[in-house]
Write a structure and sequence with these properties.
This protein is α+β, with helices and mostly antiparallel strands. The protein has one domain. It is built from two helices and twelve strands; from the N terminus they run H-E-E-E-E-E-E-E-E-E-E-H-E-E. Strands 6-5-4-1-12 form a five-stranded antiparallel β-sheet, with no helix packed on it. A five-stranded antiparallel β-sheet has the order 7-10-9-8-11. The radius of gyration is 17 Å and the shape is globular.
Length: about 140
């Protein structure tokens, strides 16, 4: 009986992590980003941006701009929203003319992939620079 309960728990964990990865799809999300933006410690130039899961549970994302030959891996925190997203979007925090990718939402999914705050963004917040949230429509690749 103990083994059956243990196997049930493991099965539920595996299935839930597969559902997270499935919500973004294997090939990920793409968007035409009209401005340079920062993720972690790296600036991604304007252009076509692709975000792909690099781990089964969606906790590691690869973000790349193939034209600019720029890519990086970054940890994300997949969280559950109260309701499914109406659109697939990239969410940016804007401070003046600086953009920081903060989250990815996928249409029809209740998952939001939150990205860590970079050191530069934390410094801007500490200086009380006003921020606005900018969303950019994306599509499943």
């Amino acid at each position: 009986m103990k083994n059956a309960k243990w196997m049930l728990a493991v099965s539920l964990i595996v299935l839930s992590s597969m559902a997270v990865a499935q919500s973004m799809g294997k090939s990920g999300v793409k968007a035409q980003v009209p401005f340079d933006f920062t993720v972690g410690n790296k600036t991604i130039p304007a252009g076509e941006c692709v975000v792909q899961p690099s781990s089964q549970d969606g906790s590691v994302l690869m973000i790349r701009n193939a034209e600019a030959k720029t890519s990086l891996l970054i940890m994300s925190a997949p969280t559950e929203a109260k309701r499914s997203s109406a659109d697939t979007v990239l969410v940016f925090e804007r401070y003046g003319d600086r953009y920081f990718l903060s989250a990815i939402r996928v249409q029809g999914s209740d998952r939001t992939y939150r990205l860590p705050t970079s050191k530069e963004e934390a410094e801007l917040r500490a200086q009380n620079v006003p921020a606005t949230e900018q969303t950019l429509l994306a599509s499943l690749k």
